Amino acid sequence: MTETRSTCPYCGVGCGVIIESAGDAITGVRGDPDHPANFGRLCSKGSTLHLTATREVTLQTRLLQPMQRAARGATPQPIGWDAALELAADRFAATIAAHGADAVGFYISGQLLTEDYYVFNKLAKGLVGTNNVDSNSRLCMSSAVAGYKMTLGADAPPCCYDDIAHASTLFIAGSNTAYAHPIVFRRIEDARRANPALKIVVVDPRRTETAASADLHLAIAPGTDVALFNGLLHVMLWEGWTDAAYIAAHTSGFDALKARVRDFAPKDVARLCGIDEADLVQAARWFANIDATQPAGRAPTLSMYCQGLNQSTSGSLKNAALINLHLATAQIGRPGAGPFSLTGQPNAMGGREVGAMANLLSGHRDLADARDRDEVARLWGVVDVPSTPGLSAVEMFEAAADGALHALWIACTNPAQSMPDQATVRRALERCEFVVVQEAFATTATCGYADLLLPATTWGEKSGTVTNSERRISRVRAAVAAPGAARDDWAIAADFARRLEARLRASGGSRAVVERSLFEHASAEAIWNEHRETTRGRDLDIGGLDYARLEREPAQWPWPAGAGAGRSRLYADGIYPTADGRARFVDAAYEPPAERRDARFPFVLNTGRLRDQWHGMSRTGTVARLFGHVPEPAVEMNPSDMQRLRLADGDLVTVTSRRGAITLAAQASVAQAPAQAFIAMHWGDEFLSGAAGGPAETRAPGGAADARPGRAAGVNALTQPAFCARSKQPELKHAAVRIARADLPWRLLALAWLPAERALAVREALRPLLGELAFATCVPFGRERSGVLFRAAALAPPPATLVERMEALLDLRADSAPASRPRLHYSDPRRGQHRTIRLSGAGAGTRVDGFLIAGDISAEAWLRPLLQQELPAAAHGRALLSAGATPPQPVVARGRQVCSCFDVSEDAVVACVARVPGPPAVRLAALQGELKCGTNCGSCLPALRALVDAPAAQHVEGASVAA
């Protein structure tokens, strides 16, 4: 076995991993105990990374060779690399010649490495001469960037993870850290154990697991964050808790802000935000942290925040208003104090460093600054860098939908799932004349729209660097060779760039002022060295770093030439990277969300993460065990709203916004306030389809990932494209919707165990059937075995051929089931009833290996656990074919999964806790000793603590809490 140190490709925590491999196969992964981001810990997603890289997964899901569609709607066919890149260069050169440089665009990703990002940025702005290069980080971190620049003068998070251990108050706003950044949450748990006096305030409309762990949960009305922060400052001013000396010595603009917050009296803010006035005052007291025993006269406060602040039409002001509180109380520049933006993607920070967004330039330079543009042009050897800001993410797809963007290159991201207002995005992908998708996985929705598909390497196969939330640069290393014909992202972009460069030189359209190619890089290290040169003298100066140093250990910037180490905290001297060296208070006016609730759309829809899934699930969706915690899509609603609408758990509802509609199951959850709803961001039409009675979508161009007429595009069929004027980040966290029961009486449920080498391919083959039904979902399940679940509903039974196709794919037809797996079958077409059971074994060892039930599916209550728990089936006899029949012997379904690592259910936890007397800590230790839950990745610890602390079974998210 070979061991390779690398970095996790999921969130911005930037955990170090050790990849175990044998030959060309990744066989395991564990946390790197020497990496300062995680010290060996991994979350449920990171600890299963090796399962996303098996041979079975690669052969069934990966894009392994370039593919070309000869025409829209055609099946893509293999093409060689030379032919593919020649075609791309021809099409882009022709588009630029006919329509100008701004007729092309590049949409890239925070999951690219810094070296990949750098080449794409230079390709667009240096070679092509367009600033139309933007990243999916626009959906993630651009408001945080704007907030830092507006206040502190640079996009430089001033804190580090070690500050969590030094803080006396943690102020967490708009972040379900327990789910989105689990390893950061492990540090919070450590800090609380070491300092029981630590106070935690959580600002979130939902009662998430993070909020449930807080000393004070401010469950504000969605979108009222600026009003809350201004109200906190009002209280601090009234009580004399601000730091007048710091404000006078190190800041500017306070008078205007002071005048603004006079209008945010506590009683008014409490009413607007929907919280208690006393809680507002308490939060202000804990944030200011006046403490005469401390050297600074106050104990340190660390704020941490993420998409709840960022994904808003006032996202920049939300960020700035929170930073205002730090400046007003001098809570910055010392251990345990400061505003800490938690980065969403693994290398969103690296992309910002190289300026790979439509309004940025390399080395944190400003596109609007002529001197900055001139510096970059000289470094690159081009005539100039265009001064007009490029199209941001939302604008880019709107331009393509309007016919203004003629060629689009998409790399390492899935806009046909992740972008808001999917109807517009898909219209853009259809109308754009030439779409290139550079991707590792062939299963994303966006691949179905590509004229040219280019196979890229992914985690475990590529080398370079990433930068995490605390400005720490880590090495990413290849453990195995690239599969098939896959190439590194930077190498694909550079090869294309050289070919396009030759065409532009030949036509006299070259922008280079040097004879050599702009893209002579021979390695990722060579690209990084060029990037390093762009940072010298900048706030992120890494002139003193090289790959040799990074080979030994991760490093934080800035690390200028001559420095012995990077800097863990910024602004300790009170000097900021602004023209006058002072931080700037921002006069933050409260702006309501772009879309209001009204009688037609009375619910506010929020979106967010699941604990065990990542983005559009192109990677995590290949691991069946990661569906154990949340097995199927649902809309979570407050129980009072469920009761008012006469809905029970599992009832299908149609959620409709002004842009689209989707149908899915309703689920009661006390995490949601009345008139609010929540759908996880991960559910796209790769896993979910159906919009019974909702607005229809346009038809996509063909292929397995295509939409069908009337088919919704997952949760982002509902979300809105309105964005923050300053950051251009869309308001994915807030949409007005209505929710109504879906009248779909015919139901279908199919589950089947399948060979591991076929299960994912079968799920992909089932995807076209999703769009043929008013509602359908198709997800993997299983742990040691691989299974596929297909659930559907319709107004009337569909054609018999659809069910037959499904049975054939799931090995449920008699002609596909070998004699060793007999099939039971019953059908009544007139009544729409249909049942097929596939068995395995014999006698007492008989098991249900697969089934499809249609029409009346009430037998799910016992058939599903019979299959998934692999219980003996012989005693159930004829009941297997009796719709809704009570089984001869009781079948007890397991409760909701709590621990993914050891597959521990909630009922097992509750039963264990009930047997153990003593305080919660004793019960938790006994629980961990007996069931092992919470002893591996720790992602389930918040849920375990809630269950241990509760007098009866308690769900924080997605269920009810005992009275």
UniProtKB/TrEMBL annotation:
CDD domains: MopB_CT_Nitrate-R-NapA-like, MopB_Nitrate-R-NapA-like
GO cellular component entries: membrane; oxidoreductase complex
Gene Ontology MF terms in the entry: 4 iron, 4 sulfur cluster binding; metal ion binding; molybdopterin cofactor binding; oxidoreductase activity
Domain 4Fe-4S Mo/W bis-MGD-type: 1-57
Co-factor(s): [4Fe-4S] cluster; Mo-bis(molybdopterin guanine dinucleotide)
Any Gene Ontology biological process: cellular respiration
Alphabetic keyword roster: 4Fe-4S, Iron, Iron-sulfur, Metal-binding, Molybdenum, Nitrate assimilation, Oxidoreductase
Gene3D superfamilies from the UniProt entry: 2.40.40.20, 3.40.50.740, ADC-like domains, BFD-like [2Fe-2S]-binding domain, Dimethylsulfoxide Reductase, domain 2
Keyword Secreted belongs to the record: no
Transmembrane helix keyword on record: no
One Pfam family it belongs to: Fer2_BFD
Family: Belongs to the prokaryotic molybdopterin-containing oxidoreductase family. NasA/NapA/NarB subfamily.
Protein's recorded name: Molybdopterin-dependent oxidoreductase
Organism per entry: Piscinibacter koreensis
